[in-house]
Amino acid sequence: MERLRHERALALGEALDISTWKNYGSALNSYLNFVFLHDLSPEPTADRLSLFTVWTSFYIEPRSVDSYLSGICSQLEPNFPDIRKPRSSPLVKRTLRGCERLRSKPVRRKRALTLDDLARVIAHFAGSTLHDDLLFVAMLLTGFFALMRLGELSFPDDKSLWDWCKVIRRDTVRVCLDMYEFHLPHHKADRYFEGNRIIIQKDQFRHNPLSHFIAFLRSRDRLFPLSSPLWIMANGHVPTRSFFTSRLRRFFDASVAGQSMRAGGDTSLAEHGTPPSIIQALGRWSSQAFIIYIRKNPALIQAMLYSDCSERAHRASPSPRPVSRRSRSRSPLRSRFSS
């Protein structure tokens, strides 16, 4: 029985990702600070959570308060098993909706990278043989055309959030004449922890990511032939988020960040008429969240809807049955006149 309790404790500890667990801890600290300042009991009632929602909305974006409440429920549920009931009460929901109406600000998303932006970066590093330059270009093109998150290609700057189980390994890479592929370990949209096989074709509109990936791979295998991580800097460490964003700042302003790769690849596919279902599958989205990157351009929406409708019409229309010459020659009408 002690062994079972020990294993259960380990399983409960792994139920949440380490980054999510850290964010939930921050939400709990905010709630405890609220009840301490207002001399309240820490027991989470509907009235208390509603007041906490109003108080927190003065300091952070009200849209983020919803995740704070989820974190508080996750952290306090062992001590208050019925905390989900006041969390889902109409009082808390309506309070949150009202705070969003009163104090929410327009969302400022990062600008999506374009094919011209990629050409600018490639031209700058065209003659460079430095390993870190080759690494940056390969990461940029791979993240853009494979619709990858920066967190899937690099480590966070906070060392306490490093997870080696999410690192892409060199031995999963396969390079062919017209594409390259590797295995992406489990990510936040992977509910079954199976990972995904990422495939990048050679010809991507005006660019060839395969040639840049091969250049990086040769440098990497020459410097670190025995290292396990695929993406590795010249100092032998896995690249961090700041490694990538600091090089982006050489070419773009603060409106471009790590998520600009994923948004740029999404937008580029939509511009070229890729059906939404294909974009969602390529980006490994579990919902229609990818539309937020392209919804503000009516021309893109029209192109996507037209492409999607054409795809559905093609699937719905029955294919005509071919008629061979032999069957026509044996038709009853032809047989009667020939006789």
Walk me through the structure.
The protein has 339 residues and is mainly α. The chain has 2 domains: 2-103, DNA polymerase, domain 1 (Orthogonal Bundle); 115-255, Alpha-Beta Complex (Topoisomerase I, Chain A, domain 3), CATH 3.90.15.10. It is 53% helix and 4% strand. It is built from 16 helices and 3 strands. It has helices at residues 2-13, 18-37, 46-56, 62-76, 84-87, 90-103, 115-124, 131-145, 150-153, 209-223, 241-248, 259-271, 276-282, 298-316, 325-329, 332-338; strands spanning 174-175, 179-184, 196-201. It has a 3-stranded antiparallel beta sheet with strand order 1-2-3, covered by helices on one side. β1 (174-175) and β2 form a beta hairpin. α8 packs across α12 (259-271).
Query: How many separate helices?
Result: 16
What can be said about the biggest beta sheet?
3 strands, antiparallel
Output the structural class. Answer: mainly alpha
Q: Indicate the CATH class of the largest domain.
A: Alpha Beta
Number of domains: 2
Give the overall shape.
Answer: globular
Level-2 CATH architecture of the largest domain: Alpha-Beta Complex
Secondary-structure element sequence?
Answer: HHHHHHHHHEEEHHHHHHH
CATH topology of the largest domain: Topoisomerase I, Chain A, domain 3
Strand order of the largest sheet: 1-2-3
Span of the ends, CA to CA: 91 Å
- The total beta strand count reads 3
| Percent in helix | 40-55%
Mean pLDDT: 83
- The fourth-level CATH homologous superfamily of the largest domain is Topoisomerase I, Chain A, domain 3
* Estimated radius of gyration: 27 Å
The fraction of residues in strands falls at under 5%
Low-confidence segments, given as residue ranges, are: 322-339
